[in-house]
Design a protein that fits this description.
eight-stranded antiparallel β-sheet; DNA-binding; 195 residues; globular
Length: 195
DNA sequence: GTGATGATTTAA
DNA sequence: TAAATCATCACT
């Protein structure tokens, strides 16, 4: 697929708002093909979501498993369409979209993007020219889009970080596999990728 | 206060 | 394959 500049189809795309209309697994698939946009320190960067993972409330690998609230996972219990950002391995941020009923504790981890806009800024932030290496990992895409802990608990219906409708994918264009980097809950096929 | 751990990335 | 690197969490 060719990279598309923001000034054509994206400028006419509408902001996705129906976070509370989907259960978490549906939202994980629904977000594939949409575009995550950040306006950070005066720069717009954006990429199409190509990989997601679902974290359900009754799933042992979920930060909110057993309805356990901690300082870190507080955002997961907020309403669908809230950003949940956490810091891990002493150096990386991961970005999630809170989903499901408010108070339930579910989210969709955004694992990979196809860079679409602000690629030079992403290259600067990531310290690499290699476009394929800009957003192909949860920590990488956060660095590329300037997503840090200040975006935790932000509304994704605002102007700083939001999602645009873009490409509508069908079920047979999505593949499901076990999630990456977890020790529990490997039996669930909760990782979704664009074929 | 202490110690183990982690939804990762990078370089070797 | 292993090191980097530290906030977060549970608690000897």
């Amino acid at each position: 697929m060719e990279l598309t500049p923001l000034n054509t189809s994206l400028s006419r795309a509408s902001k996705f708002k129906d976070y509370d209309k989907y259960d978490t697994l549906s939202l994980s698939k629904c977000l594939l093909g949409k575009v995550l946009v950040s306006c950070h320190e005066g720069h717009i960067t954006a990429g199409m979501i190509t990989e997601t993972e679902a974290y359900l409330h009754d799933d042992p690998s979920c930060h909110a498993y057993m309805n356990k609230k901690t300082n870190r996972n507080e955002a997961m219990f907020m309403k669908a369409g809230t950003g949940y950002v956490y810091f891990i391995y002493g150096m990386h941020y991961c970005f999630n979209v809170v989903s499901g009923e408010e108070g339930l504790g579910e989210a969709v981890l955004i694992r990979s993007l196809m860079p679409l806009y602000g690629i030079e800024i992403m290259q600067q932030r990531r310290s690499t020219q290699n476009t394929k290496q800009l957003c192909n990992g949860p920590g990488k895409l956060c660095q590329a889009l300037g997503i840090d802990i200040s975006y935790n608990k932000c509304s994704l219906q605002g102007d700083a970080l939001y999602i645009l409708d873009y490409i509508q994918l069908s079920e047979n264009e999505i593949i499901s596999t076990p999630r990456i980097g977890i020790s529990k809950g490997r039996e669930f096929l909760y990782r979704f990728c664009v074929k």
